Amino acid sequence: MYIASEKRYDNMNYVKCGNSGLKLPQVSLGLWHNFGDTASYDNMKQMCRTAFDHGITHFDLANNYGPKPGSAEIHFGRILKEDLFPYRDELLISTKAGYEMWDGPYGDWGSRKYLLASLDQSLKRMGLEYVDIFYHHRMDPDTPLEETMGALAQAVHSGKALYVGLSNYNGEVLEQATAILKELKCPFIINQNRYSIFDRSIEENGLKDTAGKLQKGIIAFSPLAQGLLTDRYLNGIPADSRVYTDGRFLKADALTDKRLEQIRRLNELAAQRGQKLSEMALAWILKDGVVTSVLIGASKPSQILDNIKALENTHFSEEELKLIDEISLDN
Fold first, then answer.
1. How far apart are the C-alpha atoms of 99 and 294, rounded to whole Å?
2. E-only strand ranges, 31-76
3. Backbone dihedral region of 233: left (phi > 0), alpha (psi from -120 to 50 degrees) or beta?
4. CA separation for the pair 224, 222 (Å, rounded)
5. pLDDT tens column, 182-235
6. 329 partner at 20 to 30 Å CA-CA among 46, 82, 148, 239?
7. Where on the phi/psi map is residue 38: left (φ > 0), alpha (ψ -120 to 50), or beta?
């Protein structure tokens, strides 16, 4: 029988999400990778236990996480039932809908029919009555924004979600969506977007600035650029890398000679700061207080513990920030 550590909150920081009353741990656990049917269930369980025992209260999913789609929610639902359900009120559980989930014209994008049906399916897979945050997973150019936002509001008003979020939106559409959700009195609090030293898209498309202006939270996914911002690739591609074992997200051609040199130089800077490269990369995202939480992926419990260490030093000098930009933005 699993009993959570009594010291689980001692070493985690919790930050208000935008101007809402909800606090997120600065490090959250994403179940995008390593929670599908091809992964070890015992390892999944140990990762969730390790995360919660060290103050990670937020577990992030989506309907299509796998492989196969839906399997991450099924496995997490089993972990909840076997281990974590006594702590349900201490947990933040989020899921999403927006990418292709089932065949036919109603299992993709942002229609009211798809989003509400998907949420019902997600709740059933996880054995939950509600999720804490329900996201629309990506912008839909063919569905009126009012319809998609109305579906999110319905999810809250029906009691199946406490808050809503938007994922992979840009600044312009975020501002439009915020106005609609405010009119619908829907508690929209958070944006989930890709962000890392190597991917500054949210700085370029207005999302980061707009979220700050509107006082909405941001949670950053792929903060380690699919593992590039770690010491794992300093000497090339290991045989057991996800490049070879999975191949869905990180491709061998991403590791150019120039990219490897950038990784080595960033690793040297991290060492000067007394950090691993992964710790520095996570700390960099949290440096200015605009990003509420970083969403880590892990393949084993020890990686979770390593990532939490990033919170020990999120301060950067102007010289360090300038050097990081010089290294990473040199195209």
1. 22
2. 58-60
3. alpha
4. 5
5. 999 999 999 999 999 999 999 999 999 999 999 999 999 999 998 999 998 887
6. 239
7. alpha
